[in-house]
Amino acid sequence: MSNVQVATPQQKSPTPSVELEALRSKKAVDAMQLGPPCIEKYHSVHRAISIIIDEQISGLPVVENGQLVGIISDKDLLMFLFGKEFLHATVKDFMTANVVTFDVADNLSSVCNCLATNSFRRVPILLEGRPIGAISRADLIRFATKYFFSSADAATGEPLKKESLLAADVMRGGVQTVRTETPMPEIAQILAKKRVSALPVVDDCMNLLGIVSEKDVLASLFAPNSTVLMARDLMTTDVVSFNIHDDLLDICDKLVREEFRRVPILDQGKLVGIISRTDIMQHIVHNKSYGAIYNAQKL
Question: Each residue of 111-169: pLDDT tens digit?
Fold first, then answer.
């Protein structure tokens, strides 16, 4: 029996109180996380795998003499782990050399647009060519949430009334899923081909049973005496999900506070869609103000 958690919407949600343009005027340095883990390009690929799993991150900047020369991601590793001899491989053999980066002085709006329209989840931030930080989708959402929302409208001191967008208004349907008996190599192939970080596990009636992630697959590849496992052996059954009628702000809050990047959307217990950090970011970028979400005055 699965243990699927349906998140309970918060009774009180913060309301927008400042202009969206104020956020767009900020610089990359204002939102970046300092000191991302880096790895030298001639280090062992096993070391890269260990760091990614231990640090619970999706990629590592690759450096040579302190200068950024590439990036290696969990997807890079998954795409090459099958059918390749990599016992003595180095990070250089797996890394992507063509890396999108930003300078500390670049506008935060440029970073936001980049992460909202590309498949990668974070970008290195450079100072004189050296990586000193990184900005992820979660960092941007967290920064926007802190910057925009307060308990009352700044001008009147009164809470703004709102009619919120619901999960159903933003979710994406047609979700790629797997069954409990799907073998691990097939799961890895889907993750690499579809360029997603996790797959919902469902039964024949689309009831959500769990989630299997790329990290689950990656960790299983190096387990002692491992055999070909199936989704039921890898999946996490303790899954946070939302209902189609839940408030988008509650979903945003959960994605900011937790490490996972997307949440399943259910209708009467059945999987009908998914909402990711990127989906919310795209909504923010494509709408002129948060007032569109809350049916409040245009800020």
Answer: 877 887 777 778 899 998 889 988 887 677 667 655 544 433 434 444 433 446 788 88
pLDDT at 243: 95
H-run or E-run covering 201: strand 198-202
Percent of the chain whose pLDDT exceeds 70: 68
Question: Residue ranges per domain, the chain?
Answer: 4-16+160-294, 20-147
Task: Read off the amino acid at residue 199.
Answer: L
Q: Which amino acid is at 28?
A: A
Both tokens of 58, joined, read: 């999706």
Higher-pLDDT residue of 191, 43:
43
Closest CA to 284 of 294, 297, 269, 274: 294
How are the residues of the chain apportioned to helix, strand and coil, as percentages rounded to the nearest 5?
Answer: 35, 25, 40
Partners of residue 236 on adjacent β-strands: 211
Q: Which CATH number is correct for 20-147, 3.90.226.10, 3.10.180.10, 3.40.50.40, 3.10.580.10?
A: 3.10.580.10
Q: What's the Cα-to-Cα distance from 40 to each of 96, 128, 193, rounded to whole Å?
A: 13, 18, 28
**Confidence band of 11 (pLDDT split at 50, 70, 90):** very low
Query: Do residues 237 and 248 lie in contact, with contact meaning Cβ atoms separated by under 8 Å?
Result: no
If you compute the radius of gyration of the chain from its CA atoms, what whole number of angstroms results? 20
Most confident of 100-104, 162-166, 273-277: 100-104
Is the distance from CB of 187 to CB of 231 less than 8 angstroms?
yes
Residues in the chain: 299
CA atoms within 13 A of residue 191's CA, in its CB half-sphere: 30
The domain 4-16+160-294: what is its CATH number?
3.10.580.10
Distance CA 177, CA 91 (A): 31
